[in-house]
Amino acid sequence: MNNNSLLEKTIQFVKETLQDAEGGHDWFHIERVFNTSRMLLQHESADALTVQLAALLHDIADPKFHQGDESIGPKMARGFLESEGVDEKTIEHVVKIIQLMSFKNSLDGDGKKFTSKELEIVQDADRLDAMGAIGIARAFNYGGFKNRALYDPSIPPNPNMTKEEYKASKAPTINHFYEKLLLLKEGMNTETGKKMAQERHQFMLDYLGQFFRETGLSL
Ligand code: ADP
Ligand code: NI
Hints:
Pfam families: HD. It comes from Flagellimonas taeanensis. This is HD domain-containing protein. The chain is 62% helix and 0% strand. By secondary structure, it is mainly α. The protein folds into 2 domains: 104 residues, Cyclin A, domain 1 (Orthogonal Bundle); 90 residues, Methane Monooxygenase Hydroxylase, Chain G, domain 1 (Up-down Bundle), CATH 1.20.58. The longest helix has 25 residues. The mean pLDDT is 90.
């Protein structure tokens, strides 16, 4: 099968699988990460097929909605790619990228042992989607899903909190900016990704400025 029809089939598979996904991880998130990855590919040299397959399959099964099981996504991706007769070397690389990509893994150091240009590109594209206007929309969407307050001056942001403490704290959504979203800029891998991150980072800062002016609070 040629690469274009493989990518077409992958797009169909992902669209069907994510039919009922919540707003932050639906097909349109995948489409944005896919398009940003293709854009980054124009400036970085990497294997285009691996990058595009990994972008399309990276959130095929979010552990948050599978009882925390992080192995389901990589397994589903492998099953699909095997059924399409993709060569083993490409499958292994795509699966590795999916395993190591989430920012949980990379920011707290787990995925350090393996890296590749292909991983760096898809990871940058995924991080960019958590920043800027879309990133703001996704954060409040997630907070609404978790029934979190928009802001609460009695719970100040604490970037040093562990994931468990964070979950138990019922932290309001605005804290997520200080605990994660404003830190993403520093974790960008590629030169093009870094440039794109600057603009989205600044947009979040402007947004937070306006947010606190409107609430009459300051942080
Ligand atoms: P990934 O895209 O790697 O699956 P996550 O599942 O951690 O990343 O996050 C998906 C989206 O939900 C991101 O835009 C992220 O900012 C947002 N999000 C995750 N955790 C929170 C939270 N506690 N509060 C607000 N938004 C969150
Ligand atoms: Ni993602």
